[in-house]
Amino acid sequence: MNENSAKIYSYLMTLFVVMLVLTNIIGTKIFVIFEESLPNGLFGFPLALTAGIITYPITFLVTDVTSEIFGKKKASLLVVAGFFCSLLSLL
User: Fold this and answer.
1) d(Cα 45, Cα 17) in Å, to the nearest integer?
2) Which residues does residue 48 pair with via DSSP β-bridges, in sequence order?
3) How far apart are CA 25 and CA 19, in angstroms?
4) What is the pLDDT along the chain (91 residues), one digit of tens a residue?
5) What are the residues whose beta carbons fall under 8 Å from the beta carbon of 66, sequence distance 6 or more?
């Protein structure tokens, strides 16, 4: 792996770990959409979602991009690093 590839991989790993830990922190926050914009909400009621819906899909995107560019082994290392950083943030 050359220097540019290592730099790109480290950026992807940093983005993945930050988004995963951030998802665990803000994932319990709930927000409501379509409450004021429509009188009865989108489906006749307001739609409540967790804040993790914003950050969690980014982790899938980063994992897929890493797997395509660097292979399954590097993507697995990314997931393991994210798992351990999530455990560390839990403590």
Assistant:
1) 35
2) 32
3) 10
4) 799 999 999 999 999 999 999 988 887 888 877 655 555 555 666 777 888 888 889 999 999 999 999 999 999 999 999 999 999 988 8
5) 9, 12, 13, 16, 74, 75, 78
- Buried b / exposed e along 10-47 (16+ C-beta atoms within 10 A): eebbebbbbbbbbbbeeeeeeeeeeeeeeeebeeeeee
CA dist 60 and 90 (Å) reads 21
Cα distance between residue 67 and residue 79, in whole Å: 11
Residues in the chain, overall count: 91
Is residue 16 within 8 A of residue 63, CB to CB? The reply is yes
